[in-house]
Design goal:
The structure is a single chain. This protein has one domain: TIM Barrel. Helices cover 42% and strands 20% of the residues. The chain contains 11 helices and 9 strands. Strands 1-2-4-5-6-7-8-9 form an 8-stranded mixed beta barrel, surrounded by 5 helices. Strand 5, helix 6 and strand 6 form a beta-alpha-beta unit.
Amino acid sequence: MDAATLKRAVQDGQLVAWYQPIIDLGTGSAVGVEALARWPRPGGMIPPAEFIPLAEASDLVIELDLAIIRYALADLRRWQPTRPGFELNVNLSGRHLDSPAGVTELVAIVEAAAVTPGTICVELTETTRPDAADQGAPALEALRAAGMSVWLDDFGSGFYDLRDLIRLPVDGIKIDREFTAQLDHPRAAPLIGALTAAAHQMGLRITVEGVETQAQADIVRDLGCDLGQGYLWSRPLPADELEGWLSTAAPASA
């Protein structure tokens, strides 16, 4: 596979959004979903690990992000009338913050979708950092001014660190699944607990990724984490299967 093939696929609408539920650890309710890029082909699904790094190597990731966001916003518009307040988390490469029109286009897409902007959570991915993270702050402020919230994704496993919680205008962080997998280590829970307490003092929310067992969910809930995401509740699903899953899940808070 090469970049030209991926670019044609993005432009032809071959890539779609699948969704993984996000759970309120306190109530067990599904309060939203994260939209994830998927590339179904007649011979089977192309793994994201094969095309996401290829997109992230250039500004092609901007096209990919926006295509998936448009797709997901159309689904969100269907869901919100019956699930008010239901949130949509979308991934945004740091390259958008380096592009003068990147954030402006995203704001326009959300406004055109006729959804509640306050239910859109932008996850800033760590795999490609803006050229100067603090120079990206005005772009993040523009997203927040439009009503969206901004989160640092996969916190602790890549570019973003504690300094970014001070200098970047963000609303929450997602703790990387690597930390969840090590909850049996005696130092893991105290670290997550300390980070959660500090984040709450700054007015930030915490999502823990990669929750696979009820024991892990219980630990991070008791540590004060707000939200959870992982195979314990559901793998990523296409929209029709997600709707079936939601119909049997605990109702989301309005």
